[in-house]
Amino acid sequence: MSKLYIVPTPIGNLEDITLRAIRTLKEADFILAEDTRTTAFLLKHLGIEKKLYSHHKFNEHATATTVAEAIGEGRTVALVSDAGTPGISDPGFLLVRTCVEAGIEVETLPGATAFVPALVQSGFPCDRFCFEGFLPQKKGRKQRIEALAHEERTMIFYEAPHKLLRTLSDMKEIFGGERKIALCRELTKRFETVIVTTLEQALERYKEEEPRGEYVLVVEGKSLDEFKKEQEADWQSKPIEEHMAYYESQGVDHKEAMKRVAKDRGVSKREIYKYLLEME
Fold first, then answer.
1. Which domains are delineated in the chain?
2. How far is residue 85's CA from residue 158's CA, in Å, rounded to a whole number?
3. What integer pLDDT is reported at residue 221 of this predicted model?
4. What's the burial of 277, exposed, middle or buried (CB within 10 Å: 0-12/13-18/19+)?
5. What is the structure's pLDDT at 269?
6. For the whole model, what pTM was predicted?
7. Could you tell me which residues come within 8 angstroms of residue 233 by beta carbon, excluding any fewer than 6 positions away?
8. Phi (first) and psi of residue 219, to 5 degrees
9. How many helices (H) and strands (E) would you count in the chain?
10. Is 261 helix (H, G, I), strand (E, B) or coil?
11. Could you say which residues of the chain have pLDDT below 70?
């Protein structure tokens, strides 16, 4: 039956291709490739001869409808990117959406993607995380990071080597220099590197060492301790009377409000009571 197959390809080590992916590529009527030269090399390695057509970010708007029509006429199409899973920071989304809207079946094979091994190897919590992919190329890069200032989940970014220093600098400013980060490159390849450090140390390192290759950046989420320190600092900047008024305006009685204010500010209830008594 005709359908669109989303086929992950190795991100470095060619042995990571799955048996199912190989069979799908062999059986497809034709293959859509982000770069036909890269995919031709993979197909040659696998001993597959198949017609290739380009499908990349510069032509996907124009080709999505045509490809969907071909599938609707009975063709089976496989979509691959240069490395990893199509649609994950690579072309694919527009074609999948077009097929879904046209009622065409889409089947996505499980397989290689860069952020999963990077996340697991980082040692950061991976039960909850958010994938940000590449930051905007021009406007909005710093604003995107600022929007994540209070994110508790582990965060994952892709970054090009020539933009790494700028990104680390912005992250240090927004997340703080002590926030932990894992910088992963050449995953699954011979010179795979995973560096777990702080944003401050990473920035200093790459001021001296030229970044090479694309990076997967795994950034630790905001901890409970960070939240508490920020909240305490915020309360310390406000008068105790204003702090008390905040709780009492919510219907909290006077004694309980003193207890909460003391806890927020890291002092004893007696100190709050003494201060308020002196202010009367």
1. 4-108 (3.40.1010.10), 115-222 (3.30.950.10), 225-279 (no CATH)
2. 14
3. 96
4. exposed
5. 82
6. 0.84
7. none
8. -110, 130
9. 12, 10
10. helix
11. 1, 280
Q: At 117, list the tokens.
A: 């091994």
pLDDT of residue 227: 76
Q: Is 110 exposed, middle or buried (0-12, 13-18, 19+ CB in 10 A)?
A: exposed
Helix (H, G, I), strand (E, B) or coil at 192: coil
Sort strands 129-134 and 154-159 into parallel, antiparallel or unpaired: parallel
Strands 215-219 and 154-159: antiparallel
The phi and psi torsions of 128 (rounded to 5 degrees) equal -140, 130
d(CA 272, CA 235): 13
Nearest Cα neighbor of 244 from 215, 275, 223 is 275
**The predicted structure's pLDDT at residue 230:** 76
Question: Three-state DSSP class for 209?
Answer: coil
- Asked whether 218 and 155 are in contact (CB, 8 A), the reply is yes
Look at residue 4 in the predicted model and tell me its pLDDT.
98
Amino acid 35 reads: D
The predicted pLDDT at position 137 comes to 84
Neighbour-count burial of 200, counting CB atoms closer than 10 A to its CB (0-12 exposed, 13-18 middle, 19+ buried): middle
Residue 72: what pLDDT?
94
CA angle 114, 119, 122 (to 5 degrees): 125
- Joined together, the tokens standing for residue 10 give 């190795």
